[in-house]
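Private note to self, pasted from the team thread so I don't lose it. Backbone tokens:
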């Protein structure tokens, strides 16, 4: 199993590790700082270097429960080879900013989330909500929360604690990862937002770029799509 260093520290940009397996699609490593596609967030990109080689990592995702770094080629890649992985940091940092801001959006719109997507400088959430919120009001409240510079903390609760507090789950389309007995939780401020999440976040809300515009689309009677542009 790959050690997922990005879970406890999302700011790692470069890391030395070992190739544990070469697959047709790419490489499995002993440890990684690359986030695999999931929860609406794209898999990380970057590069891997060893000896005189530099190979592009074009994406990261789980394939048959293995965290695979998708590469253009696996020529010259060998098991047990020492490598350095380098993250496309500007893209990932943008995902972290957008992702954290979607948590703030959750705190403003207290309705179940039915879907979402994170992009570079853009993000959206769909809410099970009948009435369209006022977009200027959402914009103002988001930027106000960003300015308050709340801390973003990682913690965990047990499966049982989550079962006893089902309201903590905000996203109906993404199930919190169970099985290990512990569920990763993200808390913003003392009580701005608290929910299970496996993604990558900034550590203070002031790191999020101010939201430039909010667009709200009607996606059915009980579904409103809120799109944020940064
Ligand atoms: Zn999150």
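Design output:
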């Amino acid at each position: 199993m790959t050690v997922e260093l990005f879970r406890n520290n999302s700011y790692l940009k470069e890391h030395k590790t070992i190739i544990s397996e070469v697959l047709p699609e790419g490489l499995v490593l002993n440890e990684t700082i690359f986030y695999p596609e999931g929860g609406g967030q794209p898999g990380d990109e970057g590069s891997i270097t060893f000896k005189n080689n530099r190979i592009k990592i074009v994406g990261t995702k789980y394939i048959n429960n293995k965290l695979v770094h998708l590469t253009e080629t696996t020529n010259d890649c060998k098991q047990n080879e020492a490598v350095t992985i380098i993250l496309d940091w500007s893209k990932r940092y943008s995902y972290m900013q957008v992702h954290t801001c979607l948590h703030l959006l959750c705190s403003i719109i207290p309705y179940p989330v039915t879907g979402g997507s994170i992009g570079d400088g853009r993000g959206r959430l769909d809410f099970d909500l009948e009435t369209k919120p006022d977009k200027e009001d959402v914009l103002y409240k988001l930027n106000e929360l960003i300015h308050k510079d709340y801390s973003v903390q990682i913690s965990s609760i047990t499966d049982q604690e989550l079962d006893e507090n089902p309201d903590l789950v905000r996203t109906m389309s993404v199930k919190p990862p169970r099985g290990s007995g512990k569920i990763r939780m993200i808390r913003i401020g003392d009580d701005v937002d608290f929910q299970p999440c496996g993604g990558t976040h900034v550590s203070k809300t002031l790191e999020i770029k101010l939201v430039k515009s909010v667009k709200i689309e009607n996606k059915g009677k009980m579904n409103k799509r809120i799109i944020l542009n940064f």
